Amino acid sequence: MGAIVAGGAxxxxxxxxEPRGAEPAVTVPPLLLASPTxxxxxxAVPSAAPVTCDSALALGRAALKTSDERRSLADxxxxxxxxxxxxxxxxxxxxxxxxxxxxxxxxxxxxLAGAVFSLDGVGGDxxxxxxxxxxxxxxxLFDAVAETRDANAGVIDALLHATRGAAADPIPHMKGWxxxxxxxxxxxxxxxxxxxxRIDGELASRLAAAREGQERTVFLExxxxxxxxxxxxSIERALVxxxxxxxxxxxxxxxxxxxxxxxxxxxxxxxxxxAVEVRDQAAWALRWRGDEAAARVECxxxxxxxxxxxxxxxxxxxxxxxLVPHSPYARDGLVHLTxxxxxxxxxxxxxxxxxxxxxxxGERWPPR
Length: 368
Prior knowledge:
The protein has 368 residues and is mostly helical. The chain is 62% helix and 1% strand.
């Protein structure tokens, strides 16, 4: 108890010791479709400019025709704002037509398609139609398909068909199965249990049959995206594989699975695995659900306080911060980690986390 009170007071001392310069002015950069080159000026649209469906679509078309080399990653990410600027069904239909007809399979297509497929007015059948029709860029669309909010049988059938067809192309093959896993979880959230169960069985079957290290990793990661229920036996075997890459993928595959057993297995990897990569990902995986919150927090505080690697300690603190909305113990764990007995990097990270909105000091540790 005393360590917690001292830790709470130490938060301000830790932060006060940090040098502070003048606060930078906050500005909103324009949407830049292409970086300036010798070939011509960049096309920029001020953020304050009024946006209509026509103007947003015009910018989208221009972006698709611009090579990725002439656009920064930040500008590409901001393209996702365009389809969301005008939220009505007729504009969504025009965006779908643009994605369907796109022949430029670039990063701009990834950003725009992901935003379009996630619009409230865009259904799973709409996404399936685009995925089937745009054969030229079909495999570039896998990441975007995972963003759909309407995981119905139509879009899942289209995605499975396209993913199976990409078996000889390693990166699209991986992305397709990761998207399949994400759609299982979306279907379950929507109450479409028959659809989710069908995907669950497919993933479990393929994971059980996977022998190669890379293939096994792909299906472990897909199972993790899905929170695959039937994949339990395969995940259990993978957790004790001699290869740390397989153990890491298996640990992450537990993050959306409920229950004491899943939390205990993630915690075991976080505290006892001999590979720093596995411990780091285990600490990350513990943040994704709020059940068994006391056990999660206790494990993360132990990792944050005692792991020999700074990267693992900082990941544990970040996971505690993520768990604050789910458990009052997470706040208390952060306060505990500001104590003088802990490494300076942990104390600083915990102090910063405690200054975030909604996090207040607690006085209960260890959790009862």
